[in-house]
Amino acid sequence: MNLIEEIALRHDPATLAVVSGDRRVTYGDLFHHARAIAALLREHNATGRTPRIGLQCPNGVSYIVLSMGILLAGGCLVPLAEELTDRERAEIAATTALDLILAADELPWHGGEALLAAAESDGTPWKLHRCDHPQPAFPEDGFQALNPAFIRFSSGTTGTSKGVVLSHQTLLDRITAANEGLQIGPRDRVLWMLPMAHHFAVSIVLYLHFGATTVLEHSPLREDILATAEQHEATIIYGSPFHFAMLSGDRGDFRWPSLRLAVATAAALPENTARAFETRFGKPLHQGLGIIEVGLAILNLDAASAKPTSIGKPMPAYQVALLDERGNPGDEGEFNIRGPGLLDAYLVPWDPSPLDDGWFASGDLVRRDADGDLFLMGRKKSVINVAGMKVFPEEVERVLNDHPAIARSRVLGREHPQMGQIPVAEIIPADPESVPKPIELQRHCRALLSAYKVPMQFKTVDSLPLTASGKLKRVND
Questions:
Q1: Which pick of 58, 116, 190, 316 has the fewest CB atoms within 10 Å?
Q2: What is the rounded CA–CA span in Å between residue 135 and residue 231?
């Protein structure tokens, strides 16, 4: 069965599904508008197969309605995120060989082969465009056989991302497995601040499937976020470390008594951010490891206060193996995982069998402590080799970012004739008028790191390249 159709059968139409400002939207409202979108898409689907439909729309109720409409119509949803450049959107459209595009704003990057319809949904005007792309670089029959629901590109540049394909069944399996740990249900009100283009098909669909109410907050201001949390008695918040660092700085008297679960994802959680949040609100931050190919299969549920930088243990439905460079299992190595909801295929180059006997090798390097809790050390490709010693740039960045004069840093490996590589750092100073001296930063690092991990050079920059989800872009992304 279509996943969205199953959601429609699970809930009373009068149940509250989404809150956005003063608006209260029921499940019945959502499906009324989504079915109208689906009917229009079916009318204009001339392919006789599952169409690939791009969605360009800002966060909001309309994004949810249009996405549901695409999936109800039997289409495969391809997000065209707001923060992408015109070139990146055009590249995704060509790579996925889109059939149609639903757009809530203009498409200066699109050739505009045909405008099929124009209307509005939930007060947001949108247009439906037909695409005319050459033969796709993947086998159409193999793609269609998956019953595809979603194509998502990773956080890296689109030129190196292969495109993850998920079927309706895979999405259902994934959200069901994740909710064994999250335990989200009809009594929950989830405060939402993340970009839907990156999280809708797993997070928002999960909330809809299990009957929770999603509370949308569009303001980036701490005071507005907390006022919304208080007004709607939010029980869950799902955000990035940036969001939690911002909220922790609040000096008001709201203690958030309704909060039961705060999940940090999208980037490594600094310990000082976790401690500050727990001190301010009396609730721990639960760090998770979200992987596009896997979903949220790892979450620190039990040791969040004692070990805030741990990503915890796998959800009950998953198995984890840490493999060294020779493929031997141990307590440190590349993170491999097996379980429900793993990707069905990579799009380009086409790979319908991306798993090794059911296992997915993530490229993340992880260690396991004596209690079985997992800790993310860094990316396999980003490791810096200094005279045969491994340096994880993420570890060095955490130390640098704790220096009061640094807002953010990025550590890279630079080729060296004797050492192989040496670590160097780019820094954004907290105060551009007061840049810390390199000797001061080296002294700070030496107090906390082995000598070979200390950056040899420091470069002051105005900004650092980030992925759409807020992660640092590495040279080898």
A1: 316
A2: 52
